[in-house]
Design brief:
The protein is α/β, with parallel strands linked by helices and 364 residues long. It has 14 helices and 13 strands. Helices cover 40% and strands 16% of the residues. It is globular, with a radius of gyration of 21 Å.
């Protein structure tokens, strides 16, 4: 009799080589690491929201297609009527479904680097090759390198996060259009941070009808609903109908459907919070830029990427943690992210505490 399992024999080697996705415990810390909206649902909305949940039949499975929620999302996000929509338990599930659908021997997924880590994690888990095309030093697309990589690898999927995580920058519309025209397969434009760009901004939801091999991904996580895990993809019916075959039944639970529908009916409340986050973002950027030893990049998101001098990123991260302020250290990613940290925009008093401690540490 032994307690040794056969997992090493049967679990795929590529999985054994990976690490679990680690989320550090936040406790009562000032939490500025996960690109969340720092404001909870306003008190005035809590009871009306709870009232919408009282009639839910939790003994029954949820609406399998969530038609009512899809209708609301289409209206708020101005998704073209001709485009199909599929919902996911957060964007991660949708990325996984896309990659499962196109997985095959000698197939490659391509994205700029650095970008959202789950593109690579899930691509490799699905048995796909992954190629990251380094951004330029100013974190803009290196278009000659992108053209060369597309020609060489003939990627089955290209992921473009715009605005990009972790840089916070938008890719130029003309560059995305060129990639769409060059790509042999699917192009996924991840617009998770689109709400923070501003009104009248360019997006690719409105271009879906122009590009049959384009899928646009959105989420409610960044605008104040991270806890309900709801994302969506929109695209040509041919693509969405194939991807829907891999969507797990009842993947959007009843509480999520009801809560998201309620939030969309009160969208102006969340838009007002987004506007406040953008004002705070610009204030924090100006303050960071004035600190000696800090290089901050302008942001079109709810976070700011910045670099500290003298190879102090890891030390600064640890020292802020001692002060119960949690931000993200990106130094270990290497390359253009050496000595870089990322701070999510919090409430004004949280941002002030972060800026005060960072200034003290860099002056010390």
């Amino acid at each position: 009799m032994t307690d040794k399992t056969s997992s090493a024999r049967w679990v795929r080697e590529i999985i054994q080589q990976q690490s679990s996705y680690h989320v550090p415990p936040a406790g009562d810390f000032i939490k500025l690491d996960a690109m969340e909206n720092p404001w909870p649902m306003p008190e005035a909305l809590k009871q009306p929201w709870l009232d919408t949940l009282t009639d839910l039949q939790l003994n029954r499975y949820p609406d399998p297609v969530a038609d009512d929620l899809v209708h609301r999302l289409r209206a708020v996000m101005e998704i073209p009527d001709k485009s199909a929509i599929m919902l996911g338990n957060g964007s991660d599930e949708l990325i996984q479904v896309i990659l499962m659908a196109v997985a095959g021997d000698s197939r490659t997924v391509l994205a700029p680097a650095p970008s959202f880590v789950m593109y690579e994690v899930l691509a490799r888990a699905c048995g796909l090759s992954y190629t990251g095309v380094p951004l330029q030093q100013n974190f803009t697309l290196d278009m000659p390198a992108m053209r060369k990589a597309i020609s060489k690898h003939q990627p089955v999927v290209i992921f473009l996060a715009s605005p990009n995580n972790p840089t916070g920058l938008i890719f130029q519309q003309a560059e995305i259009e060129e990639i769409l025209n060059l790509a042999p397969g699917l192009v996924v434009v991840d617009e998770a941070y689109q709400p923070f760009i501003g009104t009248g901004s360019k997006n690719f939801i409105c271009r879906l009808v122009d590009y049959p091999d384009l899928i646009v991904m959105r989420t409610l996580s960044k605008v104040g609903l991270a806890g309900i895990r709801l994302g969506l993809i929109a695209g040509h019916t041919d693509w969405i109908s194939e991807l829907d075959k891999l969507r797990l039944p009842y993947n959007i639970n009843s509480l999520t459907q009801a809560t998201a529908s309620f939030a969309l009916d009160h969208w102006q409340v969340f838009q007002d919070q987004i506007d406040e986050i953008c004002r705070e973002r610009d204030r924090v950027y100006d303050s960071l830029s004035s600190i000696n030893g800090v290089k901050a990049w302008p942001s079109n998101t709810n976070f700011i990427l910045f670099r500290v001098s003298d190879n102090r990123a890891e030390a600064i991260h640890a020292q802020l943690l001692e002060k119960e302020i949690l931000i993200k250290c990106l130094h270990h990613s290497g390359g253009a992210l050496e000595n870089c940290l990322r701070v999510t925009i919090g409430r004004p008093e949280e941002n002030d505490a972060f800026l005060k401690e960072l200034s003290k540490l860099l002056m010390g």
